[in-house]
User: Fold this.
Amino acid sequence: MKLNSLHAVAAVATSFLASIVTAHAQTPSRLDKIKAEQTISIGSPTSSLPFAFMDGNQKMVGYSIEICQRVTDIIKSSLAVPKVDIRYVPVTSATRLQLLANGTIDLECGNTTNTAERHQFVDFAPTTFVAKVVLLGKKDSKLDMNDVQAFKGKTVTSLSGGLNLAVIQKINAEQKLGMSVVPVKDAPESFLSVKTSRAAATVADDGMAYALVATSGAPDDYVIGTKALVVAPYGIVIPKDDLRFKKAVDAAIVSLIKSGEVAKIYDKYFNAPVPPHGINLKYPMSAELKKALANPTDSPDPKAYE
Assistant:
């Protein structure tokens, strides 16, 4: 898309957001807080490469982080304030939704799966990534990462408080596999459990799995499953029942999708060297994500992305 076209899209988005900001102004919203304080608090993990992580200068970067930075810029323009500073708040899969609900953060920007259950407590912006939940293990284990039955009686790990943990716990119970499912706090810990053979596999989203293997120092030692245990749409997480704020965030993200900016950010973090080690994940955009970007939706239904 030409630069003039990008400017036109941004102008339309800003104009639309300005109307949202002024409409129903009597209804309390995070927009009012952001305008008054000229600060937005973004919760994010710090080691979820390529979505949200620290670069070599201890600066927050990543696919989700950059999308949220662009959203902040658009909201700043619509609020007609000279600046909106970003305050980053570290979160984990176990704390992110609670910190959003209690007002500590205004947005959660990482790799959070949009599920129907979570819609009881938070809202989601239009989907910006579609993951496949897969098994990741060591090649020398000789275990089939596409066959969950191969893990009968074995130990597997997954992030505490995340969808992946619930998925593998459900499979374990329904298929009577007798696995020991161990919750861990973050992606590096989950991978370390596999690397040290304390676990036969970790259950991870494929984007994260590729990042963990690519940065392991010995990528040929690991196998990533290709068969999805479940399809998982990711979205920026928004406080529940703040309609003005959700409309503003949604409009900003849709404008970034339609202008092609989200696709460019995707290539920056999935198909080019990323800091701090210059690793290229070489992970082309999936058909599921292309479909989601062609028709933006905040649906939690996995079937909407198949």
